[in-house]
Every structure is written in C-alpha cells, then in structure tokens.
Amino acid sequence: MSPTNSITQPNPTYQTFDPDINKHITFRTLILDQDLSLIHNWMNQPHVIPFWNLALTLNQMRNHLEKALADTHQTLYIGCLDGVPMSYWESYWASKDRIAQYYPAHPTDQGIHLLIGEPNYLGKGYALPLLRAMTTFQFQHPDTQKIITEPDSRNAKMIHIFKRCGFQPQINIQLPEKPAILMFCHRKTFFNR
C-alpha cells in the first residue's frame, strides 16, 4: 500500500480519551478560513517564534498555509483538548520531505512537527499525552513502522518529551533554519511502552 496525503482515509479526524490528563484529545484537519487567525496568533507567541520562525503578517501566514495545504506530502491538524483548539500539528511522509536528504527514508515513514500555541496550556503536562495520541494516530497507517522528528537541538524540553514518548536520538543534523536532532520512534518500541 502506498501512502496517501492523509493519515487515515476517509476520516480526517482522530479522537481519544487520555486518562492521565482526564481529557479528550482530538485532531482535525486545518481549515484555512476558520483557523488562519488562530495559527497566526500562535506563530507570533514568544515561546513559538524561536523554534518556528514564522512570525508573519496575517497575509503572509495565509500564503504560507495555502502552500502548505496544497503540498500533498503533508497534512495539517489542529489539536484540541476537550474541544478547545490549542495546538498545531504537521504530519508528513518523510520520503517526500527534505528530511529524506539526511537519512534513507522508507516510503511509509511518517514525520511530525508540533507546537502548543495557547500559552495557558504550557507547563501543565499536556505535551506528552498529545504526542502519544498523534503518534498512535500516525501508526494507524498499517504500513508505517517508523515515525521521525527533527526538533531544534536547543529545544531541550521538546526533546525530553519526544524521548519519553519512545523517540530515540539518531544523529545531529543541520537544517537550513536550525540545528536539529533526528529522532526515530519504531512501532514496536512505541506500543511496547
């Protein structure tokens, strides 16, 4: 089975209940007109700017998201806790992404980018449950055996969360916009945790 541009077909959303935080976690596909202001606000938050470098004007953000939504190798999601939008996610096929220049990507490897946009959700233990839920969602594709990520190597908090979720550091890489750590999460490792 070859990968498509959506993690699951035909349902573009995923929902689960996490008993550790006693909240429902939902991922829904991004809707440009509905979510533009939200994403623009999040990308201009002080805790997001250093790691995403997308502190753009509203029109620039619209153009950026239009291009991202047209890119068939990735799917953009809004993450919600108990129905409240509070995070942004990009799920992508690694072999079709620039990251494939840095390791021999398998056609069904998926990658992940994320941010918690709402400041009042920071520091409350939500990042790990959200990451576990998205990783579970990505592994619903039956052929995916590995999820990859490349967080900024200066983002120690996020690297720690990825490790706790089962992602293992592989190599340091230099992306055009940041020094990064390439990390892998294998299906067996994830579900054995």
In words, what does this structure look like?
This protein is an alpha+beta fold and 193 residues long. The protein has a single domain, classed as Gcn5-related N-acetyltransferase (GNAT) (Aminopeptidase, 3-Layer(aba) Sandwich), CATH 3.40.630. 30% of the residues lie in helices and 30% in strands. The chain has an 8-stranded mixed β-sheet with strand order 1-2-3-4-5-6-8-7, with helices on both faces. α4 packs across α5 (156-165). It is globular and about 40 Å long. It starts with 13 loop residues before the first strand and ends with a helix.
Helix and strand topology:
Blueprint: E1 14-18, E2 23-29, H1 32-43, H2 49-52, H3 58-70, E3 74-81, E4 84-93, E5 110-116, H4 127-138, E6 146-149, H5 156-165, E7 168-175, E8 178-186, H6 187-192
Parallel strand pairs: 5-6
Antiparallel strand pairs: 1-2, 2-3, 3-4, 4-5, 6-8, 7-8
Order of helices and strands: EEHHHEEEHEHEEH
Amount of beta strand = 25-35%
CATH fold annotation: Aminopeptidase
Can you tell me the number of structural domains? 1
Characterize the overall form: globular
Q: Kindly report the spatial arrangement of strands forming the biggest sheet.
A: 1-2-3-4-5-6-8-7
What are the segments in which pLDDT stays under 50 over at least 5 consecutive residues?
1-10
Number of strands: 8
Please estimate the helix content.
Answer: 25-40%
Discrete helix count: 6
